[in-house]
Amino acid sequence: MSVSSPSPFDFRGYRVVVAGGSKGIGRSMALAFAQAGASVSVCARGEQALDEVRHAIAAQGVTAHTRSCDLADGEAIEAYVHEAAEVLGGIDVLVNNASGYGFEDTDEGWLAGFNVDLMAAVRASRHALPHLSASSRGSILHISSIAAFHPGVRGPAYAAIKAALSQYTTSQALALAEQRVRVNAIAPGSIEFPEGLWDRRKTEAPELYRRTLAKIPFGRFGRPEEIAHAALFLASPFAGWITGQTLCVDGGQLLTG
């Protein structure tokens, strides 16, 4: 099922916020929720991409809201979440999808991951919580990575920060269970889409691209909509008794180490 196919999920009446959703996985999730009937707000840094995704969301006949936001900036996150809740009339689902892509083992690499992959999720959750706890269907989704589950010489900072995000998912789920807010994470494998990381590596690092592809039992890279399908499930009533979990969506990639 692509995002243009009829959705098996019904999110009519839901208010969904996607922090980091102008392209790739984030865009696909935003459009999937909109197609299923949800009102959707998206933030990112690029105005042009935000304009495009806002029109695509609105084309589904739902409320669409976007705002430019640097997710490494705590004050900007607070302002964005407040505005999104005001426009949508509340928040039922928060999706934390942003990444600083801190792959280098340098202070800059570590801080990029810490500030965007981890602290943006912490801050957005904090500001969205009053709305989520007021909802009868509050749910938080963090986008982690299968890199969090195994050691590797490439991207140690990225892997460690994503591991922290997966661990935070469990602690946050326990803390918010009393408020009936569910918290889960999705750990994607290697996802390919136009102008994305693996699309670039196909030409910039072809040997790495081939080695990675060879480790995926399903014989192909993943697609953004496949992560969106998992997000719809985890945010839906069908997952109403699932919390504190990290779901790997990777075509078996993690199985090969």
Question: Can you describe this structure?
Answer:
The protein is α/β, with parallel strands linked by helices. The protein has eight helices and seven strands, in the order E-H-E-H-E-H-E-H-E-H-E-H-H-H-E. A seven-stranded parallel β-sheet has the order 3-2-1-4-5-6-7, with helices on both faces. It is globular, with a radius of gyration of 17 Å. The two termini are 28 Å apart. The mean pLDDT is 95.
Terminus-to-terminus distance: 28 Å
The named CATH superfamily: NAD(P)-binding Rossmann-like Domain
The CATH architecture can be given as 3-Layer(aba) Sandwich
Order of helices and strands, N to C? Answer: EHEHEHEHEHEHHHE
Q: What is the radius of gyration?
A: 17 Å
Strands of the largest sheet, in order across it?
3-2-1-4-5-6-7
Number of strands: 7
Q: Look at the structure and give the mean pLDDT.
A: 95
The CATH topology annotation reads as Rossmann fold
Shape label: globular
Main structural class = alpha/beta
Main sheet summary: 7 strands, parallel
- The helical percent reads 40-55%
Total discrete domains: 1
What's the CATH C level? Alpha Beta
Strand content: 5-15%
Which regions contain 5 or more consecutive residues with pLDDT less than 50?
A: none
DSSP summary: helix tally: 8
Topology summary:
Layout lengths: L14 E5 L4 H12 L3 E6 L2 H12 L5 E5 L5 H15 L4 E4 L10 H28 L4 E5 L12 H21 L5 E7 L8 H8 L1 H9 L9 H12 L10 E4 L8
Parallel strand pairs: 1-2, 1-4, 2-3, 4-5, 5-6, 6-7
Helix pairs in contact: 1-2, 1-8, 3-4, 4-5, 6-7
